[in-house]
Amino acid sequence: RVYLSPMLFGMRYSSFGRHFTRTYKLQSIVDQLSYYVNPGDMVVDLCCGSNEFSRLMSDKLTAMKKDCRFKNFDFIQPSDTFHFERKDYMEIQPEELCSGDKLIMGLNPPFGFRAQLASKFVEHCVKFQPKIIVLIAPEETRRPDGRYYELTWEDKDLLRGDAFYLPGSVDAEGKTIKQENNVPPVLYLWSRVDFAEAHRKIARRHGHLRRSSGR
């Protein structure tokens, strides 16, 4: 006896077959990303799901005395409405956010067949010219144009194992069903070319390049 939303629970924030990233994995991403964030930056989650990432990011940056702004979008309202706006990320326009020099965008978009949706997500991010795109996506996802963005690092190991769960879906014992991929997605950090060298220095200083499979 296994129950999977949305078949049982209908249309709510935990339906539509989405998978959410587990908290301890998000915390690891937050711990790494926080070094690249400056006071006054805006962190934008274009497909926020449970909206846990920005909450963890805010706590981390507050502890580091970095005062930042947040915007979190999705077309289904999460239980945590921290800086949440109900909107499809494809409908968001550049004038709704700050300038790209202060902008950090991500995180876990829908993948789609052969990463088609994830690739559209990347294309839409580039329109805002953010200084950082941080992304959980399959390897076949189309990358940002190399004239404008460089891959600072990638981590192919972080999201192995029980990195995801199926929200609103429980087994016969009432436990949330875990989601493990045969081929785990990759965590990417792309930098706009004019920030790339500064971000590589940060990556070297904190050992992120050593954990990167691409370096």
From TrEMBL:
Transmembrane segments: none annotated. Residues 36-203 form the DM2 domain. It holds the Pfam family Mtase_EDM2. InterPro entries: Mtase_EDM2. PANTHER family: PHD FINGER-CONTAINING PROTEIN DDB_G0268158 (PTHR46235:SF3). This is DM2 domain-containing protein. It comes from Selaginella moellendorffii (Spikemoss).
